[in-house]
Design a protein that fits this description.
Length: 227
């Protein structure tokens, strides 16, 4: 599902990620419908599809920009964990003989559950206590127990990270909004194959579904909460 651009470096690197994220936030500031009101106490971190399929340079679907933001995502993971807030990873994969539906016809490239590339990339700070949900559509709520996991933990705010910005991340953000969650979409914690896809998604979400933020903004609220 999905293909990278095949380049060794994507539209952003770890060196210029902070500068680029400031540009993206500036570009959508006037579109954003809500102010930054994030409160850690009712939040959960969603890490979408950070699998070897997208993060391994050996994969045909490799996303160089995803590698650039692993550090940011790991910082969020560790901070949420320290604060006792839920962290939920998703994996996009199909079981043997499972019908992928239109996704399979659209991409003709199914990630099978028993393939090594379906696993969360080892660069991510995943521990056994973290929740991992397998999904089969862009929307992480579709056919999964994601909403049950969030409701059990009385989550009201979702911070979205992962790949791909304009597919699974954007679709999940839109669906979360329709289910009355307040969505914070990290511009430097999500990635895709092309900067135009990335900023277009952020613009759409800013106008109607989510509050674009930097990972540093989310971290700053935790630091204020923990000190």
């Amino acid at each position: 599902m999905g293909r990278g651009n095949g380049h060794e470096e994507g539209y952003v690197t770890e060196r210029n990620l902070t500068e680029k994220s400031e540009e993206w936030l500036s570009e959508v500031r006037e579109l954003t419908r809500r102010g930054f009101e994030f409160g850690p106490e009712g939040s959960a971190l969603l890490v979408i599809d950070m699998q070897r399929y997208f993060l391994s340079p050996d994969s045909h679907a490799y996303l160089p920009a995803a590698r650039a933001m692993i550090h940011n995502v790991n910082e969020l993971i560790r901070t949420f964990r320290e604060a006792g807030r839920p962290i939920i990873f998703t994996r996009h994969a199909y079981m043997k003989d499972e019908d992928p539906g239109i996704m399979g016809r659209w991409w003709a490239d199914n990630i099978m559950d028993d393939d090594l590339v379906s696993q969360i990339d080892p660069a991510l700070d995943l521990i056994p206590e973290d929740i991992v949900i397998r999904k089969t559509r862009y929307n992480a709520f579709y056919g999964t127990d994601l909403e049950d996991e969030l409701n059990k933990r009385q989550v009201k705010e979702i911070v979205i990270t992962g790949v791909m910005t304009h597919l699974c991340c954007e679709t999940t953000a839109r669906e979360a909004f329709t289910r009355d969650y307040e969505v914070y979409f990290t511009v430097d914690g999500t990635a895709t194959a092309d900067e135009e896809f990335h900023i277009s998604s952020i613009r759409n979400l800013a106008h109607g579904f989510a509050i674009p933020v930097s990972c540093a903004q989310i971290l700053s609220r935790f630091k204020g909460n923990l000190n």
